[in-house]
Amino acid sequence: MKYSNAWHLRDIILLTLIAIFFGVIYWIIGPLYNVLTVALTPVGLGPGANDIVMGIWVMAGPLSGYVFKKVGSATLGEFLGSVVEMFLGGQWGASTMISGVVQGVASELGFTFTGYKRYDWFSLNLSVLTTTIVTFGWDMIRNGYSKYHIGLLIALFIIRLISTWIFSGVLVKAIVNLLDRTHLMQTQTR
Amino acid sequence: MATISVNHLSFSYPTEDGQKPLTLADISATFPNGGFSLLTGPSGSGKSTLMKIISGLYPKFGGLITAGEVRLNDTKISDIPETDRGQLVAMMFQNPNQQFAMDTVERELIFALENQCVAPADMMARVDRALDYVEISQLRHRQLNSLSGGEKQKVALAVIIAMQADTILLDEPFASVDPVARQLLLAKLSRLQHEEHKTIIISDHDLEDYDAYIDHLFVLNDTGDSLVLLNDKAAQQKMATFKRQDTSNQQLLLPKKTDEPIISANNLKLTAGTSTLLTQPKIDFFQHHITLLTGANGTGKSTLLLAISKLHQYNGSLLLNQKEIAKIRPNRLYQQVALVFQDADQQFLNVTVSEELALSLKNSQAPAYFKDRIPKFLEKLQLTQLQDQVVYTLSGGQKKKLQILEMLIMATPVLLFDEPFTGLDFSSLQAVMTIMKQVAKDCQQTMIIVSHQLFGLDALVDYHVTLENKQLQYVEGLA
Amino acid sequence: MNPSLKFLLAVLIALEISFTNTWTVNLGLAVIGLLVILSSRPSLKRLVLLFFVPLIPAVALAVAILLQSNAGIHFALVLFTRIYAYVFVGSAATLTTSVADLVMSLEQNAHIPSKFAYGFLGAFNLLPKIVSEVNVIRAAGNMRGQALHIWSPQLYFKAILASLDWSENLAEAMTSHGFSEDAPRTYFKQIRIRWWDWLIVIGSLALLQVALFGLHLQ
């Protein structure tokens, strides 16, 4: 299969639709983040909710990277998703677009490091790792994680890594496997 | 002014393994300049494909021309630059929901004019005229998402008029358009043809209402290898035989006093956008009976099924076994009621035919009944050989048969069908109806069926409800 | 104000306050954001939601600092006010600009290729359909005895299949309405950047530096 790096109108619409679908699924299926946050806040672990659901937040990135196999697709997917989310009135306001870029670049790196040549378990896992590290770095700054005791910091990192692995790794792979078996992507994206 | 000629055209959607099955094979025809042509043929014959080739969308968006060409006057379609094409050919699509880029009616018209590099100073006059022509000036600032199917197609025609396209293609444009809007659209198209000498081609499998308007009738056969222009006599004959199959002497009973209601509507009101579809003081649907629901396109039949399935909001009361549907939790409701969607793709959850069947059998409410019978049903439906196939690559008719079977297997007490017989050939239709009848009886199901196609339904259904003038009513005749 | 510059300013402000720790400045920005929001006459429901939505993460972050670090109440206050500044500054931009206007400005002023601008816009306008499609997918699952959760691959699989279908329909329709990638277009509504747009951006950022620097010296 030949994949071109040019973006056509149809690809852009498809990427945006996927990003919006993922956002809508997150919002419809339940205020998971809010419930977890409220439950964890009294013991001072509220931010942990952020790490627990992080994998769901960033799923659109690796999925776009994997589906489109173009340079910049993971970044663009996350970024477009964040613009939509900001207009829908998300909880992070103007910083959403910054986070979108950070998360997008973070998941893109996994594919960059493999030269956009490998689209398999390895590159996906690499993407999970880069996503966890980069987004964690951003939360050290934005959400003041850098001030936490080292024990909590490590715990949060591990939680985030597991969440990202489950959703952006295992679940994305399962979705892509279903898609691959239909052969619809190959015949339709050019 | 444009004559469209199709010369020995063959077209294929190449498959994954490099094969090139032909959707259209060596077809030729000339659509006359300034004429109003109707292109008909069974569903799945490739009408839509041909329309998209003429409009220049294919092969850009899919498929491959393997032989032949389409010419507009004397120029090959593929040689016309995309930027000039809008003035030559424009298309109205079957699905009114995904044909606009902008949010409001006015902005969509302006978007199209901007694409054509019309000078900004000239735009308003063209927008005014186009909206006025289709009589939708009052919709000018409305959100496109809030419009009904008929209104959206009027907007689509207004866009085409504003673009001043010479040839107007309409691909099954009336599928979700109510009768009043349909008449208006046809009258406007006729005026465009006579006063402005536009060339018009409509594709439709339904021939109703066209005889007053069309000059030429083209027929594409079911295998896509013959496209012929009928002479006047043959065309007249075809139109006449299409007139609703004569079901006038078939009589059904009205519900009996002793029938048990299972779904009851009280002061039910259904709306789509800002228009009211249904205001119903009272009506019941009865347990263990099969009820047919008919009415014109776009009048709200599908919406009623969606409301019963809790997928469309309603006002007033809609009860299932004395419980308000809006208040039943989804996972409970769907053990009682299931909907066979109009679009079969929406039903499928897995990849292959056998996976789909396995899921239904696993969660069926009558697994023992179906376990032994599935092979026989598959054989009757001619699906036995297809079990490893990806469901999304089945033909339209095969998808419908699989979809109906897998929903029957669930054995849900109430089963709603939204146009289940679309795209089925005669023998498939017979097989599907026999199986539906048998399962309904053996599993004591209640069915409500929305269908345009009435042929042979007198053997399947018990009662008939019509939707007319925003009211549901039981009637005795099938027609 | 010019939509592109408005969003640029909002994002730059958000970026800057992510790296600074002056809660009074955050509070000031939130108040200014709120004033802009109020000038757009939002509904009471929206206003209430606007105060409530950031409350959960803001409280969570502040409490976590108090209980799980030695950074103290000052830093907790910084994080709390930062979230409100993010949301109010962001909403000041989104509530006073339509997506269509932003897209047109990005096309004309920021010279984003029109295929990105209108591709995004066309997809965004399908939002109501996307919401109902997610409901249909979940209902289709329940009707087959399979509840679809946020961790169910089928849920996303079906969403992507719908996206594939719709993206093709929409791209074809836009092309049929004369849209051509990389082709020149005219603009009915000219969106310009005026000198005062730049003045607002540069002036606001300068004021922000003065405020941050001044308060830092104290």
Automatic annotation (TrEMBL), chain A:
Keywords, in A-Z order: Membrane, Transmembrane, Transmembrane helix
Top-rank taxon, per record: Bacteria
Protein name, UniProt field: Energy-coupling factor transporter substrate-binding protein
The species this protein was found in: Secundilactobacillus silagincola
Transmembrane stretches, start-end: 12-29, 49-68, 121-138, 150-176
Pfam families the record matches: ABC_cobalt
Keyword Transmembrane attached: yes
InterPro entries for the chain: ABC_thiamin-permease_prd
TrEMBL record, chain B:
Chain coiled-coil ranges: none
PROSITE patterns according to UniProt: ABC_TRANSPORTER_1, ABC_TRANSPORTER_2
Record's subcellular location: Cell membrane
Listed GO MF terms: ATP binding; ATP hydrolysis activity; ATPase-coupled transmembrane transporter activity
Keyword Nucleotide-binding belongs to the record: yes
Keywords in alphabetical order: ATP-binding, Cell membrane, Membrane, Nucleotide-binding, Translocase, Transport
Name of this protein: Energy-coupling factor transporter ATP-binding protein
Species: Secundilactobacillus silagincola
Gene name in the database record: ecfA
Automatic annotation (TrEMBL), chain C:
Primary location class: membrane
Annotated compartments: Membrane
Stored InterPro entries: ABC/ECF_trnsptr_transmembrane
Keywords: Membrane, Transmembrane, Transmembrane helix
Record's keyword annotation contains Membrane: yes
Domain of life (superkingdom): Bacteria
Membrane topology: Multi-pass membrane protein
Spans through the membrane: 6-35, 47-67, 73-95, 195-217
GO cellular component: plasma membrane
One protein family per Pfam: CbiQ
Protein name: Energy-coupling factor transporter transmembrane protein
Gene: ecfT_2
